[in-house]
Write a structure and sequence with these properties.
single chain, 45 residues, mainly alpha, transmembrane, membrane, transmembrane helix
């Protein structure tokens, strides 16, 4: 059975992937800024 990947050529798929990657990056930065950095600062004190 051949799979036709042509149905994923629509720009909406690129937008959805970009949105997901953007949210993941923002979540990573916020986690770093709100949890990792304060933990490092207080562990040094």
């Amino acid at each position: 059975m051949a799979v036709d990947l042509g149905e994923f050529d629509h720009p909406a798929w690129l937008t959805a992937a970009g949105t997901g990657i953007g949210y993941a990056l923002i979540l990573a930065v916020l986690t770093l800024a709100l949890f990792i950095v304060p933990w490092l600062v207080f562990s040094v004190l």
